[in-house]
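Model the whole thing, not chain by chain.
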Amino acid sequence: MVSRRLTTLLAAILAAALLAPSLASAQVEVEIRRGQVRAIPIAVADFTGDAIAVETAQIVTADLQRSGLFRPVSNSAFIERGANVDMPPRFQDWKVLNIQALVVGRVTDTGDGRLKGEYRLWDVVTGRQIAGEQFFIPRNTSRRLAHIIADAVYERLTGERGYFDSRVVFVDETGPKNQRVKRLAIMDQDGANLRLLTQGRELVLTPRFHPLSQEITYTAYREGAPRVILRNIMTGQEEVLGDFPNMSFAPRISPQGDRVVMSLQEGRNSSIFEMDLRSRRLARLTQSSAIDTAPCYSPDGRQIVFESDRDGKQQLYVMNADGSGQRRLSFGDGSYSTPVWSPRGDLIAFTKRVPGGFAIGVIRPDGSGERLLTEGYHNEGPTWSPNGRVILFFRESGGANGGAKLFSIDLTGYNERQVQTPSFASDPAWSPLLK
Amino acid sequence: MRPRLGSLFAVLFIIAAAVSLAGCDKNAPGAGLGLGAGGENYSPGSKQEFNGKIGDTVRYLTDSSQLTPEGQQILNAQAVWLRQYTNYPITIEGHADERGTREYNIALGARRAETTKNFLIAQGIGPQRIRTISYGKERPVAVCDDISCWSQNRRTVTVLEGGGSVASY
């Protein structure tokens, strides 16, 4: 436990956070030099079996590539064709490609509505198998098969959990800037399987996942005020949380899934309250002549980070989950907002107002180690990948034709990429790994 | 959906104003009472008069919910008008510019709406007539990416509700 915490700490200091000392193969590991990641050269052989096998291998390749931690070799360079899960590959044919690891796989339609996925991960240098598995998933979730394999490869070669078998809920934006139509949308983390959840008849903002169930919470303008909604993604069933005289907004569900923390307006101020989802009892957590909002739990549910302008400008504060022990976290120039606790617990991501724009940054829960990852005209609303390695946020371009787009960035500040969406997109929230 | 209706009204109003301007004889008798700054002819006690002559919008400074002297002037005029025409319920919309984060801006817009509401109440407008709503940065009136637009978006808008156009003295 101590050594794991120490490792995490060290990793954060190195701005790298990716070490894997206990691997089956010591030859294959991600190396970090001066904060920059040296990607692992890897090959994903064409998968065999079902018609979707080739596409499956492509999805695995794309996942690994996008992470920035792997450098997949193009399959046009492959020498051995037909490498498969039934026998070891011809290692010499892969060694000459200067790769370190090889993934082979097979997809089989079981005929009962399921797909069987099989893969083997080989250390090309030593000729040893690092991992091998077979598993079954429903046929209609075929892309998950690829993401599960990509996660396994990622986990074995980096020593950290993967994040590819996960989804993102966000706000799809269309129409002119002064009359935006906003719809809730959900997609896989790679942008596939996009589905609109609402029709745009009401203004919707800031969706967030329930950590354990198929639910989201979000803010909607309903019956004349912003209100907090709990929605089942599968059935579409919705419930307004609480019946308050003024607006309620900025909801987030506790890691245990039993409580929702949110802001309630009280005259000129907004304070933070927690609602028990079973009893619907409401508990006040903050009371100040200020705007207290954007609350977010620590992964153990014991603490809450939030923003407040109680000392003038917006700053980050941390308190115990019962509201006690409130202390200021951020002291830098500029103003801080939208704090989000990493699932690893070691960092808090935030939006920071800086001269000329808005940046996405991270800070440790003790207030040390503040680091900005990306700056520009307007960046906002970070959310963490399930493994705490990647941050997704939205970047808004100004002007009449400007709008928000989703971007991902590695914790190190490298590997910034746009996540393609059909329309403008904002307020992303990353799900936990799917079950 | 109120903003869309509002802009529809605005369009209709502009058309109406243009038509009335085109055929307007400024020296015509009876034009005195409802004459706007630009010479528009408003029907007394109408929404058009309130929006065009008094002004429905009060601007705020960056990150501030303090009224400016200009803001107080407009709200004083609003209060005088609203005390005279008591048949309108009022919704005060609070707004923020795009140079802030979403949830904070919702709270900031609410704070501005409360400031405007409290000022009107202090000027004798019944609290039961007034409701507030904050749109944060979701409903800008100006969409360019410099200060000229942002300053227009930091605002409250006093929206007259209901169809009441009958003046009551």
